[in-house]
Amino acid sequence: MSSIPFCEPCQRENNSSEAVSWCCDCMESLCQNCNNAHRINKITLSHTLKKIEDMPPDVSSNLTAQKYCPLHSDLIVDLYCAYHDALCCRSCMTEKHRGCDRMQSLDNVAKGIKQSPLLHTLTKDMEEDIQLLKKITQNRTENLKRLDKQKDDIQKSIAAIKQNIIDRLEALEHALLSELSTVHLLKSSNIEKQEEKISGLIEKVNEHKKELDYVKEYGSNSQVFITLHNLKTSTTEERKQIKVLIHSFKDINILYIHPKNQESYLTTLGTLTTKLDPCNQLSSDQKTKKDNYTLPLINSRPTTQISKKTRNTHSHKELDRNRFTFWKTFESIKYID
Q: PROSITE patterns, from UniProt (predicted)?
């Protein structure tokens, strides 16, 4: 016991002797001489002595502190009031226990205390309490470990549920996007076919316009007349085809219908539908236009000179038929001012 290496009785006589034992009753360290005297002195014969090396550190300061009164730090606790079950010093007795008739000396009441049932019972209870507290500690430790494991398991379960939701949403997304691609492809193909028809008509109309422009620029009036006569039928047919196309055309829109609420996201991400609207602008453009391909009526009936060469090469019957057809054509043309 390094904290009390010297004999305390000797130190009171200003001597320094190395301590070899500890008196549990006197609460002092003793040198060899004092230890021997302790064993033969009638007053200290019953004191318990222990080897100094077996004593815990700071035993002197710890035990000595218990000797002094907590209210009067300069006085030793040496009395016991049985009436109040209180430890007292001399000052406590005069201040608080003056009328108590059950005051006893601490040394008298403490005799044989180490063998008393109270010490045995209290020691046993403390040991049981310690064991119980250890069990409680073990229970709390196991509970903590169980909580940690439950936390890990729940985190894994939540992660698994999250992944399942993600997988489900990805599957719904894939299905909806696939449907969108199919609808888009189908409707796009329809529009592309319509564009092909329009391109074909544009090509025809451009060819006819080029033909008319060419004749108008470089041909005679007769050639212009013949060209107009030939083109009016084809132009009328082409305009009919344009009108049919316009009436058949619809503005195609793909609409996305959102789910009604978030709770339904795990079953559907929404639906697709197509909406066909009339091409109002194209229709209105055509309503105000009417075909008017009537050729101007010639004021005087034209004369036709048939050469002798022609008379010689054609029969009279064929010539008369040609003449009839020609005049019939002109008679059918309405006159326009």
A: ZF_BBOX
